[in-house]
Amino acid sequence: QVQLVESGGGLVQAGGSLRLSCAASGRTFSTYTMGWFRQAPGKEREFVAAIIWRGTSTFYADSVKGRFTISGNNANTLYLQMNALKPEDTAVYYCAARRVPIMGVAPTDYNYWGQGTQVTVSS
User: Fold this and answer.
1) β-strands 10-13, 117-122: how paired?
2) 95-111: buried (b, 16+ CB within 10 Å) or exposed (e) per residue?
3) Residue 38's pLDDT is what?
4) Is there a contact between 14 and 33 (Cβ–Cβ < 8 Å)?
5) What is the DSSP string of the chain?
6) Are 54 and 30 in contact (CB under 8 A)?
7) Intra-chain end-to-end CA distance of the chain, in Å
């Protein structure tokens, strides 16, 4: 069973930074694609960033490009470094895993999900 656990969310002022972590366990993730999504109340879940675990390929939503950085390490931990945060970034952030090393930007592309961590950005 694959388990994903997010951490690192919290309250931050606009312009500040947060670093989210996702601990992945249960299987080998060397052939997986890992992603971050976010969902604000009353809105659809939206893609933020993704990385193909076995390589260095990354992809970002236009809304976060240049501000957020996705990365991972060989301990199967996924990170999202968020800089220059804006109030519009406020959402629950979810870690997700796709079984195949193919980039995906739709929630339905992913097979496993964490429970989410709240990020609140104040003005």
Assistant:
1) parallel
2) bbbbeeeeebbebebbe
3) 98
4) no
5) --EEEEE--EEEETT--EEEEEEEESS--TT-EEEEEEE-TTS--EEEEEEETTS--EEE-TTTTTTEEEEE-TTSEEEEEE-S--GGG-EEEEEEEESSSS---SGGG-SEE---EEEEEE-
6) yes
7) 40
Instruction: Give residue 26's pLDDT.
Output: 78
Q: What pLDDT, on the 0 to 100 scale, is given for residue 43?
A: 97
Contacts of 76 (CB under 8 A, 6+ apart): 23, 24, 25, 29
- Extract the residue ranges of the chain whose pLDDT is less than 50: none
What pLDDT is stored for residue 28 in this prediction? 67
Cβ atoms of residues 103 and 30 within 8 Å: no
Query: Which pairing describes strands 46-52 and 58-60: parallel, antiparallel, or unpaired?
Result: antiparallel
